[in-house]
Design a protein that fits this description.
The complex is a heterotrimer of chains A (219), B (247) and C (507).
Chain A lengths: L2 H15 L26 H14 L3 E5 L4 H11 L4 E4 L13 E4 L5 H6 L2 E4 L3 E3 L4 E4 L16 E7 L3 E2 L2 H7 L11 E4 L4 E2 L7 E2 L6 E7 L3
Parallel strand pairs in A: 1-12, 2-3, 2-4, 4-7, 5-8, 7-12
Antiparallel strand pairs in A: 5-6, 6-9, 10-11
Chain B lengths: L1 E4 L3 H6 L1 H13 L3 E3 L9 H6 L5 H12 L5 E3 L2 H18 L2 H10 L3 E3 H8 L12 E4 L3 H6 L5 H7 L5 E3 L14 H4 L1 H17 L4 E4 L2 H13 L5 E4 H6 L8
Helix pairs in contact in B: 5-6, 7-9, 11-12
Chain C lengths: L8 H5 L15 H9 L2 H23 L4 H17 L1 H14 L3 E5 L2 H14 L4 E4 L3 H6 L1 H7 L3 E4 L2 H9 L15 H11 L10 H18 L2 E4 L3 E3 L4 E6 L3 H7 L3 E7 L3 E2 L5 H12 L7 E6 L10 E7 L3 H6 L14 H5 L1 H6 L10 H12 L16 H5 L6 H16 L3 H4 L2 H13 L2 H14 L4 E2 L2 E2 L7 H4 L12 H9 L14
Parallel strand pairs in C: 1-10, 2-3, 2-4, 4-7, 5-8, 7-10
Antiparallel strand pairs in C: 5-6, 6-9, 11-12
Helix pairs in contact in C: 4-13, 10-11, 17-19
The chains are: A alpha/beta (219), B alpha/beta (247), C alpha/beta (507).
């Protein structure tokens, strides 16, 4: 069966199956009622507190700092974890990455280089307090997806004003990039894990086994 | 108030004591009970087993028998659930508008016993005396379909002399499920085993519920095992008094 | 391939027995359940796991004050989507194509497998990496690839486990739920390299899987996935996972083929905000699963596959759609909450359903996909307790659909003379007549009481004939009362003063 005729067959069957739906009823005619929460009224400090608490519950580490202290905190983190090499995505602000490490600048790294790097340092698009999630959308300083997938350590910087309370708020913030092939989106909630063996949550199957989030106070 | 008793086919035939208890209880509370002798079956067994065409005449019959009643009360949450949840659907599918109207008109007047007492009549203490240790099994129909909520517990807590103990894993299905008990006997028994084990763990003398259908299954298993625990319908507990004993 | 019906646990689990993707279940549920109920290890594993996850889920759900509102929105969006499915699929196709992806339509499994195997062949490779996808299980895709000399490597830990064991999945979310850690360790030591000193600590077992699969991810040219959601408005595909193997498959290979059941489309970007809340809390009982990937079309160079193919699969879904009541089964987001609360599934396990989709959702989806006459025992594999309905994040009324499908099974049965003459059909028809007349009903009661005289011992009946013997095999049965209620009532109304007999037995 040719490609087009399979399409015709399936669409034909769908239409036949839906003969109980009146012609007058249009697809986006009546909006679905949305009585669930779409915004929250929490003060910034409460959002940040909840975000930190919930990220930590996934056994990811969280550090806080002021904008002035960011470079130092990043350097401390790298030292604590014994990182000697760090992947630096395109567009990451100057001065973030510690100068005394081997810095591997994107774009242009091979998969092998990513594999062998100790860690990656990135910015992010938005954080969700209710679920302890950071979201990357391939924006400046975030890198392509392999950057936060292959190295074993992911250091993620988030500014307080990037943190929203609810999932709907984050989804709304991402709408602009949603249809762009060059902006894939990744929600990250803790390090990689599985519960496949007797339902024990075990960390670190694939993906970074260590996730560290640095929360920067907004000016 | 004047009330019509919808006893259900299996209570009438197998557990008349439950019917007698409902009558005694409601009369004790000052109400007038009548029993329309033309009643037969609500059609749930047929409907749930897939013999849905057979249910329509039974819906019509039910409406004929109880259509003029001020209040219809039943000691079966599952049968009342059938009326509330499925009669509108069956009537709609029949295309008979008069029947649809009659069903819609009747349903608000059809009550399961504990919801009638607690929600409609506002009564939680019926003056009952039942000096035994008992545990309460919330049947799936009363819990999730017809949703009697905590009405049974409110009534039980006011029964004098009653030593009420919590049933572990109370909300798990006992495994009756109507014809499921026969068509999937092995699985039904596996579920019953766990329910019986939980009941035995309470050291209760009696296992109480608002549906004799489940009690028939639980009781049948308890009796086969000579377990020393008796099933009893909630109505019979509520009907029991110091003077009269059990109805 | 063995063609006889399974009689042992090993046979029930094995892939060597008649394959079952969208075919009729190889064996009726009651028979298969009898086998698995006898497996003590399975009962313990299943009991422990489902109890644990039930509690976790309840806690995760209780945290959200707007859970019921989310459920209602989840239901309403899916309902609207299904009612205009052609419109949204066309919209999705346009958006994906615009973003550089290629959309293929497949009316059935054979067609889907042909499309996929040809795509794989075109890239001259003999291995593909896979993300867990029930939809591809439905197709029997791995077997179809095998036939053209291509090995499909499952990269989900649980799928890897059952693939190595040559077994079938028993749970939608946690396919290896029927295996405990000791069994998994033994399996890995047998099948994976460098595992002589492997312990049975879950951490160690996961580590072994990680090492084994790493090489595959880095070398594979083609990846195959399913799709949790496809957003019509933007052309975005969404995959919800835990382990990171999904991310590996979605970003490293050059070619990505995603197989999506047509019911997975959702209208707008905004709708994701509902499902990304409903799914994690209902499935793994977490606030959010570790990784969710969303992409649109073919990737930018270096950041994922240059070639993206979306296969839109019917394979019986339009049959489900055609049943205006049964079609709610297509709202399913594959969370498995219904499995975890089902008292039947908890005891029989997934293999007893002999279906890619087990548990409550399987009992309503499979018969509609393959035809009720081909899966007639599944709608009866339930006591209608309703726990699944309360747990379903998109409010599929599973018990009502089960009853609806039972009606179809009986209708089909009674289409034939032999079906109409079957003992159950005759009994039900007779009882139906009895219940329409009060006089017949009373005669029936009296007849029963007469007939049981020899059977009643000490107030109970201990054995019943025929099909009803299933009851008395393990339970006693209450006999017709010496005086029925209506007999008592008549006596009372007529003013009789003799005391009623209570519940005594007669021998």
């Amino acid at each position: 069966m040719s490609a087009n005729s399979a399409r015709d067959v399936v669409l034909g069957k769908i239409r036949a199956a839906l003969k109980d739906v009146p012609q007058s009823e249009k697809p986006d005619g009546a909006a679905v009622e949305r009585s669930y929460l779409t915004t929250a009224d929490a003060p910034r400090s409460e959002l940040v507190r909840q975000f930190i608490e919930r990220v930590e519950e996934y056994r990811a580490k969280v550090k806080t700092t002021s904008p002035d202290g960011l470079a130092r905190v990043i350097a401390e983190s790298c030292a604590e974890n014994g990182l000697r090499s760090l992947v630096v995505p395109a567009g990451l602000p100057e001065g973030w990455a510690p100068a005394d490490l081997t810095l591997l600048h994107e774009p242009g790294l091979t998969i092998d280089q990513l594999e062998r790097a100790d860690g990656a340092l990135t910015a992010c698009a938005v954080g969700i307090a209710q679920t302890g999630t950071v979201v990357l959308d391939a924006g400046p300083g975030q890198g392509r997806r392999a950057v936060t997938l292959l190295p074993d350590h992911h250091l993620c910087v988030i500014f307080e004003d990037q943190i929203v309370c609810l999932v709907p708020e984050a989804i709304a913030r991402l709408h602009d990039v949603a249809n762009r092939p060059d902006r894939p989106i990744t929600f990250i909630s803790g390090p990689s894990a599985t519960s496949d063996i007797e339902l024990n949550r075990v960390e670190g199957v694939h993906g970074p086994r260590k996730l560290e989030v640095i929360v920067v106070a907004s000016a | 108030m004047r009330m019509s008793l919808f006893l259900t086919c299996f209570n009438d035939t197998l557990f008349p004591a439950t019917g007698r208890a409902v009558v005694a209880l409601l009369e004790r509370l000052g109400h007038q009970v009548e029993f329309p002798l033309d009643q037969t079956c609500c059609g749930q067994m047929h409907y749930n087993t897939g013999y849905q065409p057979e249910a329509l005449p039974l819906v019509r019959h039910f409406v004929r028998v109880f259509g003029d009643s001020e209040i219809v009360v039943s000691p079966s949450a599952s049968c009342v659930g059938m009326v509330h949840d499925f009669y509108p659907k069956i009537a709609a599918e029949s295309g008979d508008e008069a029947l649809q109207r009659a069903v819609a008109d009747l349903i608000p007047r059809v009550f399961e016993l504990t919801t009638l007492l607690v929600n409609k009549l506002g009564v939680e203490d019926v003056g009952a005396y039942f000096p035994h240790r008992a545990t309460y099994h919330p049947t799936c129909h009363s819990l999730r379909m017809y949703r009697v909520g905590d009405a049974p517990m409110r009534l039980l807590r006011n029964v004098r002399g009653l030593d009420l103990v919590d049933l572990p894993n109370a909300e798990e299905c006992c495994g009756f499920g109507g014809t499921f008990a026969v068509k999937n006997a092995d699985t039904s028994i596996a579920m019953l085993s766990d329910k019986i084990r939980c009941a035995l763990d309470t050291d209760a003398e009696y296992c109480v519920a608002v549906d004799n259908s489940c009690l028939m299954h639980i009781g049948g298993g308890l009796h086969r095992q000579r377990a020393g625990v008796e099933p009893i319908h909630l109505a019979e507990v509520l009907a029991a008094t110091e003077e009269g004993g059990r109805a | 391939m063995s063609r006889h019906a399974p009689t042992t646990r090993a046979e029930l689990m094995s892939r060597d027995v008649e394959p079952l993707p969208t075919h009729a279940p190889a064996q009726p549920f009651p028979e298969a359940a009898r086998i698995s109920l006898a497996d003590v290890q399975l009962r313990r594993n299943m009991g422990k796991v489902t109890t644990t996850i039930r509690a976790k889920r309840a806690k995760a759900v209780a945290e959200l004050p707007d859970w019921e509102d989310l459920r209602e929105a989840g239901r309403a969006i899916k309902d609207q989507t299904l009612r205009h499915l052609d419109h949204y699929l066309i919209q999705l196709e346009q958006a994906v194509t615009k973003a550089g992806g290629k959309v293929h339509w497949a009316a059935d499994a054979t067609e889907a497998n042909r499309i996929i195997t040809e795509l794989v062949k075109a890239h001259a490779t003999n291995e593909v990496v896979k993300i867990k996808s029930l939809t591809t299980d439905e197709l029997g895709l791995n077997e179809a690839l095998h036939e053209i000399g291509v090995e499909a490597f499952e990269t989900d830990l649980a799928e890897l486990i059952i693939q190595l064991a040559g077994e079938r999945s028993s749970h939608i979310l946690v396919p290896a739920i029927h295996k405990n850690r000791a069994e998994i360790r033994a399996l890995f030591r047998r099948q994976l390299a460098d595992t002589e000193n492997l312990t049975d600590e879950p951490k160690a077992l996961a580590g072994a899987a990680r090492a084994h699969l790493r090489k595959k991810f880095l070398s594979a040219k083609v990846a195959v996935s399913g799709a949790n959601f496809g957003v019509a408005e933007t052309g975005s595909i969404c995959i919800v996972e835990s382990e990171g193997n999904g991310r590996m498959c979605l970003t490293l290979p050059r070619v990505l083929i995603s197989v999506m059941g047509i019911e997975k489309v959702i209208p707008s970007w905004r709708d994701l905000e509902v499902y990304l809340q409903l799914l994690p809390r209902s499935s793994t009982a977490e606030r959010m699963n570790p990784y969710t990937s969303i992409w649109t079309g073919a990737s930018a160079p270096g950041d994922g596959p240059e070639e993206f193919h979306l296969v839109l699969l019917d394979n019986g879904r339009t049959k489900v759609l055609a049943d205006s009541f049964g079609r709610q089964a297509l709202q399913c987001i594959r969370c498995s909450a219904c499995l975890n609360v089902c008292p039947v599934y908890e005891r029989t396990g997934g293999h007893a359903y002999n279906s890619v989709y087990p548990g409550p959702i399987g009992a309503i989806l499979t018969p509609q996909l393959v035809g009720v006459h081909n899966a007639g025992s599944l709608p009866y594999a339930s006591s209608l307790c309703g726990a699944c309905y309360d747990a379903c994040p998109v409010k599929i009324h599973i018990p009502q659909v089960l009853v609806h499908l039972r009606g179809k099974v009986v209708e089909h049965k009674r289409d034939s003379l032999s079906g109409r003459l079957a003992p159950e059909s005759l009994a039900m028809k007779t009882l139906g007549r009895v219940f329409t007349s009060p006089r017949r009903f009373e005669r029936f009661q009296r007849l029963g009481r007469l007939g049981q005289r020899l059977k009643v011992h000490n107030g109970m009946i201990e054995s019943l004939p025929g099909q009803l013997g299933g009851w008395t095999a393990v339970r006693d049965v209450y006999p017709v009362a010496p005086e029925t209620f209506r007999e008592w009532w008549r006596r009372r109304e007529s003013g009789s003063t003799s005391t009623p007999s209570s519940r005594e037995g007669q021998s």
